[in-house]
Write a structure and sequence with these properties.
There is one protein chain. The protein is of the alpha/beta class and about 325 residues long. The chain has two domains: about 280 residues, PAC-like subunit (Rossmann fold, 3-Layer(aba) Sandwich), CATH 3.40.50; about 25 residues, no CATH class. The chain is about 35% helix and about 20% strand. It has ten helices and eleven strands. The chain has a nine-stranded mixed beta sheet, sandwiched between helices. Strands 5-6 form a two-stranded antiparallel ribbon. The radius of gyration is 21 Å and the shape is globular. The chain starts with 8 loop residues before the first strand and ends in a 16-residue tail after the last helix.
Amino acid sequence: MIDPVTGPLQEPAGLYTAARELSEDARLRGLPLIMGFTGFADAGHAVRQIVDELVDAQSGGALAAFDVDQLLDYRSRRPRIRFVEDHLEGYEPPRLALYRLTDGLGRPYLLLAGPEPDLQWERFARAVVGLVEQLDVSSVLWLHAIPMPVPHTRPLGVTVHGTRQELVERISRWKPTVEFPAAIGHVLELRLIEAGRDVTGFVVHVPHYLADAEYPAAAVTGLEHLGAASALMLPSDRLREAAREVERQVAEQVSASADVRELVAGLEKRFDDRSEEFPLRSLLAGPEDELPTAEDLGAAAEAFLASHGGYDAGNPGRGRPAD
């Protein structure tokens, strides 16, 4: 994981410490922000896998680190520690921090990630809104995952909410009116909208019988939507490989049990019947539901990078963003 904040620190309101570059580096302004909080509404451990995938391959200090001793209830969510023969090791304090990362094309973005606060939600929300406004974040995207009565043999559904109605209309098939326990992401979305910021939330639908296990397919689906909505190329190759192995294992377990086969078959029928009424849409699909070709995707990527000064088809070395 990325190291804690290093260098000269400030202490805004005593809730987090911030590296001096947070207020001095102009390159941090106007970037997209992705948020992911673990500990609640994380079916299939989708958020944890996404956060690990985004930060593990990169190094450097966090831009801001929240004081988790003020925000977490350790008795309800105890950190893990290891006893090895005659000594203790492997204790890692929880970390809730804001990072600057880069995507597969070197494009910078921000990530706010860590355990969901147990305490001081409104104070935490004010701090996050303040950071978003200070950095003039271009758009905020966050994701969580919930268990749903859907089969693992069909594409995972996604519900979208927030200010970007074109995404809501294009992707969401499930539009209920329900009351449920809130997560900190919901509160942040409300407070960010009140502050006039662009914010979008994604809910990945995970098969309920796999919700307690690590389900890489849910993380891949989440990365696809976060990447497409933010025009970022987020890493997913390792998770895709892990998803294929998990799918193989699940298929073996399903084939070995008549009861499970019957359960999955019933979910498949229900899913297919609903799909006829509400066709599944993709973020990458065109107006008529046609999927883009490899050439279309390549041309779109080049056009995006060229418009942002990040790529020159005739000279790929030009326009590379500064590190």
